[in-house]
From TrEMBL:
One of its GO terms (biological process) is carbohydrate derivative metabolic process. Residues 134-274 form the SIS domain. Residues 8-84 form the HTH rpiR-type domain. InterPro entries: Homeodomain-like_sf, HTH_RpiR, RpiR-like, RpiR-like_SIS, SIS_dom, SIS_dom_sf, WH-like_DNA-bd_sf. It comes from Cognatishimia activa. The keyword Transcription applies. The keyword Transcription regulation applies. PANTHER family: GLUCOKINASE, RPIR-FAMILY TRANSCRIPTIONAL REGULATOR. GO terms for molecular function: carbohydrate derivative binding; DNA binding; DNA-binding transcription factor activity. Keywords: DNA-binding, Transcription, Transcription regulation. The lineage of its organism: Bacteria, Pseudomonadati, Pseudomonadota, Alphaproteobacteria, Rhodobacterales. This is Putative HTH-type transcriptional regulator YbbH. Signal peptide: none annotated.
Length: 294
């Protein structure tokens, strides 16, 4: 619920009632669920305007979950703000509470703790200047080949999928029935390779980076150590943290870094790209690809 713990019982109840609400009341409830912090500081008219509904619709929504009206509904949110409870809960206390729930609670706490730490450690070691430099090389290239195998294959393809909503020069490799070396056969200094691998390092990824360098390509490497053979070859190297209590490495920081890198590419791109993204999604709405509330 948008990273907040304020009035969680009310938000959970509202979520449970969502299907039982009228379409208009559901729009109001959805806005509250996605923007709970706004409730404590907004009038019924402001919430209604933001949710694109009438004020009496917001009142009906509040009554649906047991309140007399909007002011009654808003009070717990205002109280949460006064208590300073609108921020992410203090981590140590929160994780301790999770651990007390038993063995599975301990696993849950370990997974959460590692995911948060992975994100923090990854971005603590990366500057905006590094991301901007890589983004500019990516934007100014002819083709961008994104390579990931194993668990990173889906990460690479997701990056290309997101980029393709506004740009056409991104290609996930290896292509079906091919291998990375062949996919890079005609690439040169006008092209970029984004490659990722963590311990144990995949030979085909390192080999592809070696070939890319020989052919004059710019290499953006993502790996888990400055000593990684991939980062030794990279023009732009990014170290991610991938710790997890389970047998598999975590992809959380890799995904977060890729999403951030793509946001920088869009930021340095021409004004045409945001318009292309808008057109892409408008077309999806027109074709009925997205579920529309009736």
């Amino acid at each position: 619920m948008n990273g907040t713990n304020i009035s969680n019982s009310i938000l959970e109840q509202l979520a449970d009632e969502l299907r039982n609400l009228t379409p208009e009341a559901r729009k109001a409830a959805t806005y509250v669920l996605e923007n709970p912090r706004d409730v404590g500081v907004s009038t019924v008219r402001e919430i209604a305007e933001a949710a694109n509904v009438k004020p009496n619709t917001v009142v009906r929504m509040a009554r649906q979950v047991g309140f007399e009206g909007y002011e009654d509904f808003r009070e717990p949110f205002r109280e949460a703000i006064r208590r300073g409870a609108t921020d992410f809960p203090e981590r140590a206390r929160w994780l301790q509470d999770i651990r007390k729930s038993g063995h599975m609670g301990g696993l849950y706490a370990d997974m959460v703790q590692d995911a948060l730490r992975n994100i923090e450690e990854t971005f603590a070691a990366i500057s905006a200047e590094q991301l901007k430099a890589a983004a500019e090389d990516i934007w100014n290239s002819r083709n961008v080949f994104v390579l990931g195998v194993g668990v990173n294959n889906s990460n690479a393809r997701n990056f290309v999928y997101l980029a393709s909503t506004g740009m056409v020069q991104f290609h996930a490799i290896p292509r079906a029935g091919s291998n990375p070396i062949d996919d890079l056969a005609w690439a040169d200094e006008k092209d970029v390779l984004i490659a990722m691998t963590c311990k144990p390092y995949r030979h085909e990824v390192v080999q592809a980076a070696e070939v890319a360098k020989e052919q004059g390509m710019t290499v953006v490497g993502i790996s888990d150590s400055p000593a990684s053979p991939l980062l030794q070859l990279a023009d732009h190297g990014f170290v991610i943290t991938s710790d997890a209590p389970q047998f598999f490495p975590s992809s959380v920081s890799t995904i977060a870094l890729l999403e951030t890198l793509l946001s920088f590419v869009v930021a340095v791109a021409s004004d045409e790209i945001p318009k292309r993204v808008e057109t892409f999604h408008a077309r999806r709405h027109q074709l009925g690809i997205y579920h529309e509330e009736i």
